[in-house]
Amino acid sequence: MAYKISEDCISCGACMDGCPVEAITEGTPYVIDADTCIDCGACADVCPVGAPAQE
Fold first, then answer.
1. What three-state secondary structure class fits 9?
2. What is the tens place of the pLDDT at every residue in 1-55?
3. Residues β-bridged to residue 53
4. Considering the entire predicted model, what is its pTM?
5. CATH number of the domain within which 20 lies
6. How far apart are CA 39 and CA 44, in angstroms?
7. Is 27 a domain residue?
8. Considering the domain boundaries, does residue 55 fall inside one?
């Protein structure tokens, strides 16, 4: 089950920098490619507002 970034995203880039498989791209909010995401939770761990969550 891939992670998805909610509208709470503040576009700080922390999740993109923290993703070990580069599954996150810039957007409003940022976007996680479900096919690339390995469900590790690294994005959620570094997000200051808790925007990434499992679908």
1. coil
2. 789 999 999 999 999 999 999 999 998 899 999 999 999 999 999 999 999 999 8
3. 4
4. 0.90
5. 3.30.70.20
6. 10
7. yes
8. no
- DSSP-derived letter for residue 39 is -
The residue type of 7 is E
Indicate whether 28 belongs to any domain. yes
- Beta partners for residue 4, in sequence order: 53
Residue 30 CA to residue 13 CA, distance in Å, equals 8
Q: Which of 25, 31, 32, 29 is nearest to 11 (CA)?
A: 29
Whether the Cβ atoms of residue 13 and residue 52 lie closer than 8 Å to each other: no
Domain that residue 38 falls in: 3-50
Vertex 17: Cα angle to 11 and 46 (nearest 5): 75
